[in-house]
Design brief:
endosome; disordered C terminus; 68% helix; 11 helices; cell membrane; Probable magnesium transporter
Length: 344
């Protein structure tokens, strides 16, 4: 038992290291791609031709596979909280490789995200046992989850069509919100596909059911959308901020979607529900702190031929003190009056 948990622990740590590193590698690839063409933040797709970006994608895939295998050897209560280590890996690598600084309050926000997410996971209900794709389909078409899906799609469309063009470059929650909400639907679809593959390998063919293919199409659509807006977020904002906010929001929406679809909280004690609520509030608090302490990135120079305005400094005397006055290229319109005793 202990050797099995140790394998799960090692795999979870390796997963976090790969996933955290992938954020940094992909951003370096995005920066390289932005030198020779339109950046991802403005709708460019030149990063698809950048080998470094693909290395980052492969690194993330390896991390996700390691995380999936870790659940085979260890319980979710051990593996899932360790996923927060990817935030620390990403922040440390961003500090050394991307020269992105994280303020002290930002570190506190990162810690709150980790603590809150850990509390949520440790008090989460047990996973429901499922035996077929058809059973998952029945859960997916129940009114409560259909309402959640419709709400996610509606809010996502508003963010994509209205908010993203106007505020996407200045508000980090727009891109990350799209990734997180769509990501919750991705997890539900991937779960169905995983069960279908497992049952098919065991001898019960699930590919003959149309539900399997619907879940597959939903998963592909959601994954493409996630990757697109995650790239835009990484290319626009500080990586040390994107990583924890994405982790916190994605975890929150996924737990919420799972609770609606699988009715996880039926039979849960009030203590467990209260603990998860406290964890959720902690995550939101950490996200707010991280967002408020984010250092704005330097603006891009869009016109290389725009001349720089000269800046002239003048020193004037006021109330017996010398003060500096800066003027941008304007001619002096005042005279400095010196005291007579200065020449004595």
């Amino acid at each position: 038992m202990y050797s099995s948990n140790l394998k799960g622990f090692i795999l979870a740590v390796v997963s976090s290291a790969f996933i955290g590193s992938s954020f940094i590698i992909k951003k370096k690839g995005l920066r390289r791609a932005g030198v020779s063409g339109p950046r991802a933040s403005v709708g460019g797709y030149g990063y698809l031709l950048e080998p470094l970006w693909w290395i980052g994608m492969i690194t993330m895939v390896v991390g996700e596979i390691a995380n999936f295998v870790a659940y085979i050897y260890a319980p979710a209560g051990l593996v899932t909280p360790l996923g927060a280590l990817s935030i620390i890996v990403s922040a440390v690598l961003a500090h050394f490789l991307l020269k992105e600084k994280l303020q002290k309050m930002g570190m506190l926000g990162c810690l709150l995200c980790i603590v809150g997410s850990t509390v949520i996971v440790l008090h989460s209900p047990e996973e429901r046992s499922l035996s077929s794709v058809e059973e998952i389909w029945e859960l997916a078409i129940q009114p409560a989850f259909l309402l959640y899906t419709a709400s996610v799609v509606a809010v996502t469309l508003v963010l994509i069509l209205y908010c993203s063009p106007r505020h996407g470059q200045t508000n980090i929650l727009i891109y990350i919100g799209i990734c997180s909400m769509i990501g919750s639907l991705t997890v539900m679809s991937i779960k169905a596909i995983g069960i279908a593959i497992k049952l098919t390998l065991e001898g019960t063919n699930q590919l003959k059911y149309f539900q399997t293919w619907i879940f597959g199409m939903v998963a592909v659509t959601c994954i493409i959308t996630q990757l697109n807006y995650l790239n835009m977020a990484l290319d626009t904002f500080n990586t040390a901020i994107v990583s924890p906010i994405y982790y916190a929001m994605f975890t929150s929406f996924t737990i919420f979607a799972s609770a609606i679809m699988f009715k996880d909280y039926s039979g849960q004690s009030l203590t467990s529900i209260a603990s998860e609520l406290c964890g959720f509030i902690t995550v939101l608090s950490g996200t707010a702190i991280l967002h408020s302490t984010r250092e704005p990135d330097l603006p891009l120079i869009t016109d290389l031929y725009t001349p720089l305005s000269p800046k002239v400094s003048w020193y004037i005397q006021s109330n017996g003190e010398w003060k500096q006055k800066d003027e941008d290229g304007s001619a002096p319109n005042f005279i400095t009056v010196l005291r007579q005793d200065y020449f004595k």
